[in-house]
Amino acid sequence: MARSDRAADAANPGRLKQIALTYKMTRRADKKIGFVLAGVFLLILGVFLAIGFLIGHPIYLGILGVLLAFLGTAIVFGRRAERAAFGQMEGQPGAAAAVLDNIGRGWTTTPAVAMNRSQDVVHRAVGKAGIVLVAEGNPNRVKSLLAAEKKKMNRIVADVPVHDLIVGTGEGQVELKKLRTTMLKLPRVLTGPQVTATNDRLRAMGDLMSNMPLPKGPMPKGMKLPKGGPKAR
Description:
Layout: H1 2-29, H2 33-55, H3 58-89, H4 95-100, E1 108-115, E2 121-127, E3 130-136, H5 139-156, E4 162-167, H6 179-184, H7 192-205
Parallel strand pairs: 3-4
Antiparallel strand pairs: 1-2, 2-3
Helix pairs in contact: 1-3, 2-3
């Protein structure tokens, strides 16, 4: 029992440091974050205190208001932190792969299944919606990569729907911050066993980058493919 208490005490400073670090990172992109969070907290607490005085129970409503104010502040902080993180990642090669890697349970993601020397990349995600190919890079160049990858998918898993998305801010593209939501809204047409079977067939096929070391998340700017490496499909 004492050992579990010590473990919990040791974990708390780590969480606090993580929250503080997230706040500092968010504040770099969102200068008003402190005022916004303070405003949300005081607004929620003020509303509950006012109701408490009106009905004659300011203490009870005050305690409830403090708890809900903390909850509301945490929700607002999480959303603004996520928005700031997406803003910093926007436009960086490999940013879409970082989002796909955290899309949630039920999805299997494979980064960089197709790439060219201009660092245009296609990533693949497999879930109950089928196969989703997510491209990032120059819209004109990635279309050829997507077409080649979809043709390959049709040869191997012709019975599975294949969707393609291009990450960007232009017309017909999906913004990075909306990528996860867009994918989760796709209709579910496969069962769990069908998803597993699809992954097995794709794994047996192998990927373009299977033998090339690739860092997770956004790739450093200026990174070039080695000579003699894979060519665009």
